[in-house]
Amino acid sequence: AMAEKAGYKHFMLKEIFEQPQAITNTVSGRINLESGVVNLPEVGLLPKDLEDIDRIFLVACGTSWHAALVAKYWIEEFARIPVEVDIASEFRYRTLLMNRRVLTVSISQSGETADTLAGIRIARKMGAKILTICNVVGSTMTREADGTIYTHAGPEIGVASTKAFISQLSALFLFSLYLGQIRGTIDGATGKRYGRALIDIATVVAEELPRLQEEIGSLVENYYDSRDFLFIGRGLNFPIALEGALKLKEISYIHAEGYASGELKHGPIALIDKDMPVLALVPRDKVYQKSISNVEEIKARQGRVIVIGTKGDDYLHNITDDVIYMPEVDEVVNPILYTVPAQLLSYQIAVKRGCDVDQPRNLAKSVTVE
Ligand code: G6P
């Protein structure tokens, strides 16, 4: 079994370390390194059809739903198309306003999740075009969609999704860029800059992984026996806070919640005390100042905070002892980068608690029943 895990203690850790390769495999061949122009012939829809789209629904469950939440920001920013994001089990039972100008995109590692599959079947019946972002070749969703963008993460064994999520983000970033380029809502220079940022993020993740593993390892002692945990972020990193909290509850059984930092004051701040640590994602981005104030509000209430921020941002040491620095990258790809420390923290806490990280209780890798 150790051989299958290539020397790693768990599949989950192995898969976290495979993420740079998963990004590269998902991106390569689909983007011109010189011009940043994206090419996705497998989309299965003509550029003309994509020009006519006036709304996009993203439908998914679990971790894949978090990828959808990030993609909403990218698509709206790059391609200027309104996006709705739905949990598949909600989507399938609500009143949907669909027509031929709507594109429905399912996002699924397995391509077999019952609710997501039901969602695209309904959307198709209502005349929407269907695209799927999927990791499993030939799965049911890929057979039923008009087009598939495969995430080339390779087989994922750990029940808690890691490299499949990173690959979904990479594929969705490509798709958002592609839409922006087809629709002319992104200029050549910006397209090139974003394309470059996506290609380069694989190298950045590869370079940072060993250091992060070590630094986070030295933090867990102070946090692993918590009963509750809060994860906060803003903008593109709000969904990453949700994903961080999901990972922690899935594999360590610690109650964790992800929250939009600005929403703290409307409730969860009442919970803050020394027994409710907070992981705050605070990169130097366009909402940086706001994120800092949110962390200061927690500190003022004696909360314990781990801040993940940008290398060189010394101010972070004024608000907490536990800072994990990330290299500065183009802020559009921050969610890809900031996913990694959140995964490692959850992993190490779960290991320290003696949990079966690859096979958490009550969970299945793929949920093919309703
Ligand atoms: C299960 C898995 C999750 C996954 C979700 C959606 O709950 O345990 O890791 O995110 O299903 O799966 P899918 O294959 O559709 O991405």
UniProtKB/TrEMBL annotation:
It is found in: Cytoplasm. It is an enzyme of class 2 (transferase). Keywords: Aminotransferase, Cytoplasm, Glutamine amidotransferase, Repeat, Transferase. One of its GO terms (cellular component) is cytosol. GO terms for molecular function: carbohydrate derivative binding; glutamine-fructose-6-phosphate transaminase (isomerizing) activity. One of its GO terms (biological process) is carbohydrate metabolic process. Its main location: cytoplasm. Its EC number is 2.6.1.16. It catalyses: D-fructose 6-phosphate + L-glutamine = D-glucosamine 6-phosphate + L-glutamate. Residues 46-185, 219-360 form the SIS domain. The active site is at K365 (for fru-6p isomerization activity). Homodimer. Catalyzes the first step in hexosamine metabolism, converting fructose-6P into glucosamine-6P using glutamine as a nitrogen source. This is Glutamine--fructose-6-phosphate aminotransferase [isomerizing]. It comes from Desulforhopalus singaporensis. The lineage of its organism: Bacteria, Pseudomonadati, Thermodesulfobacteriota, Desulfobulbia, Desulfobulbales. The gene is glmS. The chain holds residues 244 to 613 of 613 of the full protein.
